[in-house]
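Hi U.,

Before I forget, here's the chain from the pilot set. I'm dumping it here mostly so it's searchable later in email.
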Amino acid sequence: QMRLTYDERRKALCEGLDALRIPYAEPQGAFYVYANVAAIGVPASVFCERMLAEGRVLMYPGTVYGDYTDDFVRMSLTQPVDRIREAMVRIQSVVNTIRAERNAPAA
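Structure:
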């Protein structure tokens, strides 16, 4: 039963990342997804700070876990599916804001 529960959570998170065109490593039994946010246009540490401040979604940059580059974030699968889907809506909003800022003409 727990395996099915985590599979549903993984699918919900990965579908949300796919919709945002954020690449990730397919989890192989882990309780998290490692996503590459470099193409969003900000370092993973800034991405995480903005997710918390603007989207109220907590995640950690890969540098916390020993990554040498600030490109990846670690997203947990420990929340229920409905909370993961809600988080993905919030993440999408912040990602859209960051992308719009990056594409805005210089003042």
